[in-house]
Amino acid sequence: MKRSTSWLRPFVFPALLLAGLELWARTIGASSDSVAPPSAALRAFGGALADGSLLTATAFTLGSAALGLLIGGGLGVALGTLLGLSARAARLSFISVEVLRPVPSVALIPLAMLIFGFGLRMEISVVAFACLWPMALLAQAAAQQVEPRLLEVARALQMNAWQRFAWIVGPAIVPRLFVALRLGVAIALVVAVTVEIAANPNGMGYAMMIAQQSLDPALMLAWLLWIGLVGFAINAGALWLQRSVARRMGEVIA
Fold it and tell me: How many CA atoms are closer than 13 Å to the CA of 14, on its beta-carbon side?
């Protein structure tokens, strides 16, 4: 019996939190213009789903986040692998990396708007910049931990750079790269929504901001909860993919 109900335990606190918010919104906060009961948010969610705005905004945000992660993550893995395997490259690029890495991605929004204007390309560029540096640093750390004897074997076999990555370095760093991937997907979604709130008139962030400006707290709360659920689902999918690949590579998953 305990095992059959153990999966419910993580949902107890969120359920109590929502119940408390429902009670507060219908009693003490009944006259509030900024907070709505979760039941009203659920009805607003149903309305957004029915009129298609929910799916349209979600598709835009996830598409821009995925493309930004693909571009920034791909460049980050390539850069990090190079820096991890070449001490000389790491020394030469140290100042450049340390100057660019702390720059907040949202600080690039004005520049991205000048270059790309409003829309998908502007959002993708900001998301890609945000994902580049965490992926690069984690890939660099993973490459630095590759067994030196494997690299000696690659040199003895006279492998070129691509062959070394495909047959030696890549398989060795894949498990650690999934940690970077889980971090990257979270960053991509957060930055995409932030860009939409700040500057881009598309996506879930913009829809939530419009609900707030329209004094519709129920719809605003519905979007907020939906963004949280989407983020949870994406993280769960990345974790499942990580464990699936680890099993295929022979690792024991607890």
Answer: 8
User: Looking at residue 65, what is its pLDDT?
Assistant: 93
Give the pLDDT band of residue 5 (cuts 50, 70, 90). Answer: low
Which sign does the torsion angle of CA 137, 166, 85, 128 carry? negative
Give the separation between CA 76 and CA 82, rounded to whole angstroms: 10
Give pTM, 2 decimals: 0.82
Check the CA dihedral 138-143-146-148 and report its sign.
Answer: negative
Check if the beta carbon of residue 160 is closer than 8 Å to that of residue 95: no
Instruction: Please calculate the CA angle 236-242-244 and round it to the nearest 5 degrees.
Output: 100
pLDDT on residue 254: 47
The gap from C-alpha 211 to its chain's centroid, in whole angstroms, comes to 24
In 58-177, the DSSP E strands lie at none
Neighbours of 222 (CB within 10 A): 27
Q: Which two tokens stand for residue 187?
A: 């960053």
* Ordered DSSP codes for 35-67: ---HHHHHHHHHHHHHTTHHHHHHHHHHHHHHH
Give the CB-side neighbour count of residue 189, counting CA atoms within 13 A.
21
Residue 239 has pLDDT above 80, yes or no: yes
Q: How far, CA to CA in Å, does 164 sit from each of 74, 76, 154, 155?
A: 18, 18, 6, 8
Which SS3 state, helix, strand or coil, does residue 156 take? helix
Radius of gyration for the chain, computed over Cα atoms and rounded to the nearest angstrom? 22
